[in-house]
Amino acid sequence: MRLGNRVSAVPRNRLLVGLFRISQIVVAVVFGILVLATPANAHSFLVSSTPVNDSSIANAPAEIVLEFNEPLDTGFTELAVLGPDGSSHWEGGKPSITGPDLSAPLARLGPAGKYTVQYRVVSADGHPVSGSLAFTLTQPGPGSAVPAVPASAPPGTPVAAAQMAAPSATGGEVPVWVWIAAAVVLLIAGALVAARIGRGPDRPGS
Fold this sequence. Notes:
Blueprint: H1 2-37, E1 46-50, E2 55-57, E3 63-68, E4 73-82, E5 96-98, E6 101-105, E7 113-122, E8 128-137, H2 159-165, H3 176-199
Parallel strand pairs: 2-8
Antiparallel strand pairs: 1-3, 3-6, 4-7, 5-6, 7-8
């Protein structure tokens, strides 16, 4: 009985060793996914704004200021302020970039209601980043809507050409799902290997 117990314990020990090796593989693969996926998501992102997103204000500031987490590229830049009707423009001039800040003068606002700030910048790594935020004007102002301000681009660069030249935020990057699929394949392969080890060597005549 003791000998039988020892013999039966051998496959179990092999199975445990195999499972331990699988866990090491999974940890390594997950770590690789995190390391490789992080650069794909390391673009500029908004950290604060004036006015604050979703805030309610009685008097509008003289300019819109958006602060990002890192200095921005001075390439193709857009900033538009849309009124409560969703189509009228209230930006007072072209946007400018100073380090991590994107700013633009704000025209004197008119109707009370929700105003939306739409922006598009180029992050330091060359990828375009776009988004929007909103604030609510609680008291109507004396201003009137203005013509839309064209996008800002470096001197001598046509806006259309700058827009075409801006790289895509997803171009040339391996999707995260590819790495996850690879991890699943490795996990299945490891499980098959562990099962094979757990069975032990084939007996003659079996």
